[in-house]
């Protein structure tokens, strides 16, 4: 839902449908959301197209009646095939109207505040928590950086582009970046907050920039450290990093040359390659074509390669601020008990939904 916040806040009224439970295989995980606006316009998705029409109709009804609804779609349902959910799983969808507390929560989320929102429907209470988006730090104000910033923002990162050269590091050259910083890369990295979800991509191609910033990056518990360059450049870079005193164990974390082997050459194609490696690293993917594998297409997030470290990072984050959800008197305090999401393991990094105890 947080991803839809800018549009939701621009509408004078809306109904939003959120996936609150997933069992078996489904196209979208818990936390996926779709919203319907005042004139029937729609944004977002709860199933990748499978049950959108039925959820849309339900959302229109909730928009008119202001009564929240909880519906289940799945193969055990006689109407599942006609609804289009043919992937073998089932999902529960909570649909609710907008409310002042919900709007306040969406505004706080856009400002980067961690928070927890409670919703109630049919005697059940659900909690959805939003953490600030992960950071992507791109060092080197070159054409490749503009493309990496654009695709990084598309993937949900908060993107910073940093370069010591003010003539190149300008907001006009990197419109997709959330911020453009003029500073020496290593000095900026040493002074900025990072955590185990932060990704660093170094594109500078210059040892006087590369070595200091990579030395700093590899000393931190980051999710991803990558550097652009040829294999010869990589070999020289490793030699310089060893001379700078970087331990062998830290050198093994460096992804260089960065990106998956897609065969592209242009800045945009290179950015796709880098983004593919970011996703594969975060989600524990193989990087192989799906048709060559026999494993499930949608793997449980519990098995993702870097998800558990990312969950552990929550211990160092500020506590989520409790915010009341639907305007039906549900208290703002966080649920007394929020177990693992219904539909075991289907918990996306930035949206956790759980069944809590009613009554606060």
UniProtKB/TrEMBL annotation:
Pfam families: XdhC_C (PF13478), XdhC_CoxI (PF02625). Residues 136-278 form the XdhC Rossmann domain. Residues 13-74 form the XdhC- CoxI domain. Residues 299-330 are annotated as: Disordered. It comes from the Bacteria. InterPro entries: MoCofactor_Util/Proc (IPR052698), XdhC_CoxI (IPR003777), XdhC_Rossmann_dom (IPR027051). PANTHER family: ALDEHYDE OXIDOREDUCTASE MOLYBDENUM COFACTOR ASSEMBLY PROTEIN, MOLYBDENUM COFACTOR INSERTION CHAPERONE PAOD. This is Xanthine dehydrogenase accessory factor. It comes from Lentzea xinjiangensis.
